Amino acid sequence: MDNKIKYILPVILPIMIFLYSCGDADLTGIFVTYESADERFKQSSHDSIIELQSSSEYYEIFSMGDSHVGGTNNLDVFFDSALKAKPIATVMVGDVASGKKEDFDTLVQHIPDSDSLRTFKIVGNHDLFFEGWDTYYSYFGTSTYIFSVQTPTAKDLYFCLDTGGGTLGELQLEWFRKKLKELRSSYRHCIMFTHDNLIRLRPTTSTNPNKEEVQILLDLFIEYDINMVVTAHDHEQNVDKFGNTTIIIMDALTDTYSNAGYLKIKISETDPTYELIRLNKTE
Amino acid sequence: MIYRHFIFWILLIITIIKAQAQIKTFTYFDLGETEVSNGMFLKNSFGCELKHNSWILEPAIQLDYISESSNFLSGVTITGGREFKIWKYPMEVKGFYLLDISAENFYESNWGAYLHFKRSKHFRFKLGLNNRTYTIYKSIREENNIKTEDAKLREYFNLIYCFGAFLKPVEHNWNVGIHITNFDYFLMNQSTNPIFNIQGKYKYKSKFEFFSELWYKEAGMFNISVNNFGYTIRIGMKWIIK
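Output (structure tokens, whole complex):
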């Protein structure tokens, strides 16, 4: 029996570690998914660009990730800050809820109406648990889209991409490439939002897309001069720069994280800048 | 830079041949498709294993015949190591350097080390660490006004592992096995992206070994939101020259 444990342990131990790290998880997702990245992409509405207007050259975008609703205290703080500061939009970069319908129902009650604050939502891996895509889709309709912001003298391009399943998938990647080729040269700044942190800026159990996919994305960031890539998933903030692209991993906003925070992106005529805000450091 | 590496290895190989090392060569073809390969890919690798007493040296290269990349030579690797025993249990320690030049605007270098535990007749276990650096080519930096300090992106202390189980004892003249791993000759995946393979091999007259492998890649398994990523069919042979 002891010898058998020595062989079984290397298999069981990693499974126990990532189960621990994943919290409230739908374990069927280890072996099979309810829908693939390609299927979600086909369902998503991504043909047109959502156009926003800014009356000034300077504007802000607030971004958060990993709210994991259930708990909504930090989410309320985030939206209260946004309603006071009036950014042009907010982006919720995945793991907005737990995948369970009741948590999506709660989430929707806490998002300000679109007349007060424009909010873009992206799916994360947790949102896909417990057949969560069906509920997410019924509320929000899409997880892949483009929005733009027109200022008096320039326009900026923003991509929201679905990496909830650990990959963009073939169709979404092809679409992303096509749109960059078609649109990038007509816009001043370009920022991409997606849930999975593409790069492991620290040893972590959170999963990135496969290395081949990361290589292709890094090539695209250089070729099309992407200014910023905003991600979440790893729960701990981290920033690095590769070429002219600033790669940001945000703090989780969940109530259970002591360093919960969000991101303020500042857009002007010069390169976009950012401020990572931790709730435990604000008044 | 790459050609200087080549010349160095060739000189090293010649030195080792002169020192009467054991020499094995191998070659294999990879045919497959992934979510990001934009259709099928076809790659070919060549390498050798040089062994002198307990010391091992394994250089290899990878060529892309059909792929997204415009680079024909897409990978270069060298692994050095030593066999030893702890108590009576055979092991190997290996250090490696892998250069991936399949991307257009940057190259990827990996270096690290792993232990290969060989105690069991039917199982193999490798465990180690990898460090990865993406570096933008100088010409691309100049073209895009990229500062030198922004030219590199690093991932440190990535766990690498391989668990293998074989039907017959590992050194049997034919065998079937399964593996879960996150690395291969020319691929160092993140620790949370395992790859699975089934392999078969047959040794002919103690000089030749033919092998075939089917690799399956997933994405997002450790996100507990798995997605198919791709597959590779590998066919190859090893030849014991000396």
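Chain A has seven helices and twelve strands.
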